[in-house]
From TrEMBL:
The lineage of its organism: Bacteria, Pseudomonadati, Pseudomonadota, Gammaproteobacteria, Oceanospirillales. InterPro entries: Glyas_Bleomycin-R_OHBP_Dase, Glyas_Fos-R_dOase_dom, VOC_core. Pfam families: Glyoxalase. Residues 5-119 form the VOC domain. It comes from the Bacteria. Gene3D superfamilies: 2,3-Dihydroxybiphenyl 1,2-Dioxygenase, domain 1. This is Glyoxalase family protein.
């Protein structure tokens, strides 16, 4: 039987050290290992593989294509406050959306964007 156990997002980055530090210090990821221009990081079941690609177009230049992950989570207000305290770049403040999710978005120094969302009960006025 097919089962997805986790996902790993592969990101091309120009500055591996700076991006890795951002994920560790600002987004609370932990380092799994580093090998030959690659850094493998995790935040629970959310895994990221950062690849050193100095000649590639930065994510910020891809505009709306810079979104690479939507993280469905619980405890969104807690992680939002943590990211504010850590100084993460929050490009979309936390808010309740009409589609039944409480969401916010963060960006990395090179412009990769991650959305976080938690299911909420729809209001009776919806």
């Amino acid at each position: 039987m097919f089962e997805v156990k986790a996902t790993q997002h592969v990101l091309a980055v120009k500055d591996l050290e700076k991006t890795e530090r951002y994920f560790l210090d600002k987004l609370g990821f932990s380092a799994r290992f580093r090998v030959d221009g690659w850094s493998f990081l995790s935040l629970g079941g959310f895994h990221v593989m950062l690849g050193h690609c100095p000649d590639e177009l930065p994510a910020s230049d891809t505009h709306e294509h810079s979104y690479f992950a939507y993280v469905n989570c619980e405890g969104i207000d807690e992680i939002y406050r943590d990211y504010q305290q850590r100084g993460a770049e929050i490009f979309q403040v936390i808010s309740d959306k009409p589609w039944g999710l409480r969401e916010f978005g963060v960006a990395t120094p090179e412009g990769h964007r991650i959305m976080f969302g938690e299911d909420i009960e729809p209001s009776e006025n919806s």
